[in-house]
Amino acid sequence: MRKIFLYTAILLVSFVVFNSCTKEYESIESVDKAKIEAYIKKNNLLMKDTLGFYYQIIDEGTGNFLKNTDSVLYDFDIKSLDGQVYQSNDVYSNNGTYVGYVTSPGAFRTVMYKLKRGGHAKIIIPSYLAFGKNGNGNIPSNEVIVTDLKIFKEASQIELDENRIKAFLTANNITNAVRHSSGIYYQVITPGTGTDVIDDYSTLEVKYIGKLLNGTTFDSSDSFSTTLNGVISGWRTILPLFTSGAKVRIFLPSKYGYGSASTGAITPNSVLDFTIDITKVTNE
Questions:
Q1: Tens-digit pLDDT profile for residues 247-260
Q2: Is residue 9 part of a domain?
Q3: Which residues pair with 265 in a beta bridge?
Q4: Can you give the pTM of this predicted structure?
């Protein structure tokens, strides 16, 4: 009898705990829904409810609707319903993958099917479909998020980077930049005066400053010694065109920098802007 009583008690406690969890989950779901619907009404939005999240197409874009096998370059911001910014759109950086690989948040892929290149949608995602009770980085627990999802009109990263560089050069009135066959642009500030040819085995002493196109400095040095084997591929491509005494500014498409990786201040798929002063070249 004692064993039967014990088992019955355990089952009862388990039922109560499970039922409480279910009610808590349903409570979060209903609370999120009420918050979202109040936000939509207050801001006079025309949003569709799809699988628990809400969206509005701001601009459908042009061409064909995106499908699973299409590569897609996109950007998005993340805000709370009360306007707190957790992540901003960045015109100089972007995410990139195949539509079918977009999984976080899952609402993005569902909305992408309704967009074309250059398209733009506003999405509101309840917390349980976004980052849940654990949050993510600076996004707190159980936060409903509002996002503007923007699809770039370009289909390839190299095309997008080229357009970013050209727009930057125009905006900053840089008219003497030369386009290398690689797609890298460079501006000669001071021609070189040395006679040593730069190759993979040369030791270079340089001063440099590295920036993003938004003006953020991510690295610099007044005295840096290296061979071409020790630097990013953009340097390896362009510096052999010069000799000691040269000062050059180079604009690197992301594939010649850090690609889709994020490191320090460098965000994924960022064009890099380097000013490099080659002070000495040594060949042994």
A1: 999 999 999 999 99
A2: no
A3: none
A4: 0.83
Please give the residue range of the domain that contains residue 43: 28-151
pLDDT score of 26: 61
Alpha helices in the chain (DSSP H): 2-42, 106-112, 157-171, 233-238
Q: Which two tokens stand for residue 215?
A: 């003006």
Torsion sign across C-alpha atoms 152, 156, 161, 167: negative
The SS3 of residue 61 is: coil
DSSP SS3 for 171 = helix
Condensed to tens digits (0 to 9), the pLDDT of residues 88-99 reads 888 889 999 999
Q: Which of 109, 128, 151 is the last residue of a domain?
A: 151
Return contacts of 255-262, CB within 8 angstroms, 24+ apart: 255/157, 255/158, 255/161, 256/182, 256/183, 256/184, 256/232, 257/232, 258/232, 260/96
d(CA 250, CA 247): 10
The two tokens of residue 149 are: 């999802």
Q: Which of 6-15, 154-163, 197-206, 269-278 has the lowest mean pLDDT?
A: 6-15
For the chain, the domain total comes to 2
pLDDT at 7: 46
Question: What's the whole-number average pLDDT of the chain?
Answer: 90
